[in-house]
Design brief:
This protein is α/β, with parallel strands linked by helices. The protein has one domain: Maf protein. The chain has eight helices and seven strands. Strands 1, 2, 3, 4, 5, 6 and 7 form a seven-stranded mixed β-sheet that branches. Helix 4 crosses helix 5. It starts with a strand and ends with a helix.
Length: 190
C-alpha cells in the first residue's frame, strides 16, 4: 500500500496524473512548532516532510508513506500562508521585482524506517508588479491568495507574475515527482 501523508490538492493531482494507486491520509503534526524552531529553511522543509511521513506510518506500519512539504524563503525568512487576501496582496507587492525560493522536501518511510529523502530548491524571479496588474491578478486568483504560501499557483494565472523560474516544475508545485517516481520504481516496481 502507498500512502500520501498530505491533504494537498496539488500533491494528490500530481500522483493521480502519474497514475499511482495510493491513499491520502493527512498527517496530524504541529507544523507551527517546526516552522518556529529557528532551523534553516531547508531543514524546516525536510523535517516537516519527515514528521508527516512518520506520523502516518505509525498508523500504517506496513505501508510505504510519502511525506512532503514546502517552505517559501523570502529575504532569509520563511513565510507562512497569508491569512487574508489583503495580506496576500501586500506580500505580493513586496515580492514584486524580487526573487524568492521554494524549498520542497519529500520523505518515504515504512514504519519507523526512513527509506529515502530529498530536498529540492527552486528560485522564482517575480516581475515588477504595478498596482493595476496586481489588482487584476488578485481579482482572478481567488483562493490561491490564501491557499498557497506564495499567494499564487504557477500552473494557473499566477505564472503571469514571473519573469523567470529556475528549478524543477514539479518541486514548485509541491512534490519532486520525477526523483520520487525513480525511487518508487526501485522499491516495488511502481
Amino acid at each position: 500500500m502507498l500512502i500520501l501523508a498530505s491533504r494537498s490538492k496539488a500533491r494528490r493531482q500530481l500522483l493521480d496524473q502519474a497514475g499511482l494507486d495510493y491513499k491520502a491520509v493527512p498527517a496530524d503534526i504541529d507544523e507551527e512548532a517546526v516552522q518556529g524552531s529557528g532551523l534553516p529553511p531547508a531543514e524546516i522543509s525536510a523535517r516537516l516532510a519527515r514528521d508527516k511521513a512518520l506520523a502516518v506510518a505509525a498508523l500504517y506500519p506496513e505501508a510505504l508513506v510519502i511525506g512532503s512539504d514546502q517552505v517559501l524563503e523570502f529575504e532569509g525568512v520563511c513565510l507562512a500562508k497569508a491569512l487574508t487576501k489583503a495580506a496576500a496582496k501586500a506580500r505580493l507587492r513586496e515580492m514584486g521585482g524580487r526573487s524568492h525560493r521554494l524549498i520542497t522536501s519529500v520523505c518515504v518511510v515504512r514504519g519507523p524506517e526512513i527509506l529515502w529523502e530529498l530536498t529540492d530548491t527552486a528560485t522564482l524571479h517575480m516581475a515588477d508588479i504595478d498596482d493595476s496588474r496586481l489588482d487584476e491578478y488578485c481579482a482572478r486568483a481567488g483562493s490561491a491568495l490564501t491557499d498557497t504560501v506564495g499567494g499564487y499557483e504557477i500552473e494557473r494565472f499566477g505564472i503571469r507574475l514571473f519573469e523567470r523560474i529556475e528549478g524543477d516544475y514539479f518541486s514548485i508545485l509541491g512534490l519532486p515527482l520525477l526523483p520520487l517516481l525513480n525511487f518508487l520504481r526501485t522499491v516495488e516496481g511502481r
